């Protein structure tokens, strides 16, 4: 049962790598999707969030008021810590459950797509950590081409994310995405073979 976490900074090509692994038949657990699910109406986590932050954190329909919460966290930095203390244990548990389901279906290994793996201390969940890496100027160029986003916005996101050095230190396996998609695809295929070997040994 090999558990693989995959991460990368904005614009590094994480989504492309995930798509390539999925194409090889690897089951993918999407941590962002789980994070959205745990704050759906009726979920215990949403009730806890409302208890801590008050009624303003909910819309009239009883859904999470993301805009309000984003602004509040921006103004009150300790609120982020409070929010993470509520959500992360639940997200951790759900990721574990989703990996278990993948193994029960006979998968050799499972890949978990975690954008903020290093920032949120998720390293202990995994046997291997894959980091998709490229150069900082490439991050800016790729996000600009993809989203038509101003560089200043992208740089703000890059500052919130773990530094490139921190991500690289956490990596047990690296996907170097400084070249072409064909080169990335070759590396994904090599890693896939490696993980199949590790899971069977």
UniProtKB/TrEMBL annotation:
One of its GO terms (biological process) is coenzyme A biosynthetic process. InterPro entries: Depp_CoAkinase, P-loop_NTPase. Its EC number is 2.7.1.24. GO terms for molecular function: ATP binding; dephospho-CoA kinase activity. Keywords: ATP-binding, Coenzyme A biosynthesis, Cytoplasm, Kinase, Nucleotide-binding, Transferase. It comes from the Bacteria. It catalyses: 3'-dephospho-CoA + ATP = ADP + CoA + H(+). Pfam families: CoaE. The keyword Protein biosynthesis does not apply. Pathway: Cofactor biosynthesis; coenzyme A biosynthesis; CoA from (R)-pantothenate: step 5/5. It is found in: Cytoplasm. ATP binds at residues 11-16. GO terms for cellular component: cytoplasm. Catalyzes the phosphorylation of the 3'-hydroxyl group of dephosphocoenzyme A to form coenzyme A. PANTHER family: BIFUNCTIONAL COENZYME A SYNTHASE-RELATED, DEPHOSPHO-COA KINASE-RELATED. Belongs to the CoaE family. This is Dephospho-CoA kinase. It comes from Thiothrix eikelboomii. The gene is coaE.
